[in-house]
Amino acid sequence: MREICEDTLKKGGYKFSCPACDLELTVIVVRHILSVVMSREELNAMLDRMNENFVNRPDTDIRQCQVCGVNWQRDFTKRWPGHRNRVVCNTCSKNQGRRVEYCWGCRREWRGNAYNCGHSDCNWEKEQLETLANCETKKIGNVAGCPIIRACPRCGSLIHHDGGCKHMECKCGCNFCFVCLKKKKLLRRWECTPFDTSCPIAPRQTALPEPNLPVTVQRPRRTLFRLLFRNYWHSWLRLFR
After folding, report:
1. Is 233 inside a domain boundary?
2. 110-133 tens-digit pLDDT
3. How many domains does the chain have?
């Protein structure tokens, strides 16, 4: 078990599985087994490596501020400052008494304009595209050979397909098909085929969406019933005024 865990952590993984049946082992079970041969300090160090591997995943949405050391997760319910990688560190802003913005990719303070962070050696987008180009493929439904990682057609966040059907919902509110990458239309209609049928595989993505547009969460439009009820209610209020 110790060798299995060490090999998984060296490869950048953070989940442990049985080599015989591929059953995923929980952290509690792994910790209980290894407590016989490892000290508490060694177990805590292993957990720290697991957390580090999870944060460093190419498709994760967690980053650590290099100034204050606080881990931040992007909030897709709020409007971004104009660029998908331009985020605000609330801890640094509070400590320094000013609005501190940093690049989500290179985690350095934002020095540029609305199109780039101002650091010429920031290669975050290049790494994202390399991940999309080199990720493995899998079978989703009846369609084989689909990349296991896709970029959201709206915000560009990388999404890893762990299981389920081909229809996805990103944290930014965008609904799209993981196979053909077509987005969901209004009134709950999909451009592609139903979730349990096959559709053509879109090629691997070679570019991310335009970064200079703020992303907003789609909100469902008011239905006809709600509009009629509102008009009916206002009509009654006028009678008693």
Report:
1. no
2. 887 777 788 888 888 888 899 999
3. 1
